UniProtKB/TrEMBL annotation:
Pfam families, per database record: Hydrolase_4
Matching InterPro entries: AB_hydrolase_fold, Hydrolase_4, MAG_DAG_Lipase
SUPFAM superfamilies (alphabetical): alpha/beta-Hydrolases (SSF53474)
Protein name, UniProt field: Yju3p
Record-annotated Serine aminopeptidase S33 domain positions: 81-330
Superkingdom assignment: Eukaryota
């Protein structure tokens, strides 16, 4: 799950839909995309994946005016040997539970993982604060959790890797270029990163013109962007879960949030003034993993980033018959192939770090 489909307003706005904007709680504006429907309210479908280790409790930490929900998943296997840790950055509208399958597999294979519900998402921002964030808070919040994880990893003598999916992938790759601690991260992993939208999801020209104005003058106005379940995964059981999950739908985003994550991707794609070549973390490895059938974020954006990236250790993996969320919501077959590649990549770079 990641980008709204489509962003801001649909190119062909359904005649039975309408926008309702209201003012509440002082300055907070709220816009809701109402869909008139005769469908009965669905019961929530169970989460399809059965966790093999013990699921950690969700914890909380207050920082800069927000109470963040976060989860640390320790290694739980036969010998509990810890190889390293992966800091996970979720996609648009996602939250901790969406990462359980990946975190469980990392745990079984010797890697700790840490993720947090970003400002505007999950338990960190519920109700009318859902979808309300901006570029400053995205990276200021991330720096806080990077510093926390670096301290803990240094105390244990283990490396820290950064992984990001979709919107989180765009954040991850930009952090590799502009993050305060970019050279202390041992490697970067992008999953279907939001660099450019696929033509299927791309907004129209009118939206392109209006987006900066809406973000500037109505930054906290939110809309239900709609959730492209078929674009996210080919697995019906995960579609049923996601489509009935109250934490995932409605998929709210504020004008400021959506404008900022689109500009964040454009920064990588346009690569103006050799932004990537001049700023990418020195001598750090990067791998991008992208479903070939992704109709939300275009794999061409990932291809271009790898071309522009100056790292000597860079790799692009494209997965046939795989849609957008290859790690969190795609079929077990797709996940197992992608995770095996990720594990081998991590193991290889753990071995590289261990060399004198």
């Amino acid at each position: 799950m990641a980008a709204p489909s489509p962003v801001f307003f649909p190119p062909k706005f359904p005649i039975n839909d309408y926008i309702h904007i209201k003012k509440s709680h002082g300055s907070l504006m709220q816009a809701t995309l109402k869909r008139r429907t005769n469908q009965k309210e669905k019961r929530m479908a169970p989460y399809p994946y059965k966790v093999q280790t013990t699921t950690p409790d969700l914890q909380y930490e207050t920082f800069d005016g927000a109470k963040f929900g976060y989860m640390f998943w320790p290694v739980q296997n036969g010998n509990n040997e810890v190889k390293g840790r992966v800091l996970l950055i979720h996609g648009f509208g996602e939250y901790t539970k969406i990462q359980f399958r990946l975190m469980d597999h990392l745990s079984l294979n010797g890697y700790e993982s840490f993720t947090f519900d970003q400002r505007g998402a999950g338990v960190t921002s519920t109700g009318k604060s859902k979808g309300v964030t901006d570029e400053y808070h995205v990276f200021n919040d991330l720096e806080h959790f990077v510093e926390r994880n670096l301290r803990e990893c240094k105390a244990k003598g283990i490396p820290l890797f950064m992984w990001g999916h979709s919107m989180g992938g765009g954040i991850c790759l930009n952090y590799a270029c502009q993050g305060k601690h970019k050279n202390e991260i041992s490697g970067y992993i992008g999953s279907g990163p939001l660099i450019i939208l696929h033509p299927h999801t791309m907004y129209n020209k009118a939206t392109e013109i209006m987006a900066p104005l809406l973000a500037r003058f109505l930054p906290r106005v939110r809309i239900d962007t709609g959730l492209d379940l078929n674009g996210i995964t080919s697995d019906k059981t995960y579609r049923d879960f996601l489509g009935s999950d109250p934490m995932s739908i409605p998929l709210y985003g504020s004008f400021r949030q959506m404008h900022d994550f689109m500009q964040r991707g454009a920064k990588l794609y346009k690569n103006e003034n050799n932004y990537i070549q001049k700023n990418f973390a020195k001598n750090k490895p990067v791998i991008i993993m992208h479903g070939q059938d992704d109709t939300i974020n275009d794999p061409k954006g990932s291809e271009k980033f790898i071309q522009d990236c100056p790292s000597k250790d860079k790799e692009l993996k494209l997965y046939p018959n795989a849609r957008h969320s290859i790690f969190s919501l795609e079929t077990d077959k797709v996940f197992n192939i992608a995770f095996d590649d990720m594990k081998q990549w991590l193991d290889r770079h753990i071995a590289t770090e261990a060399k004198p």
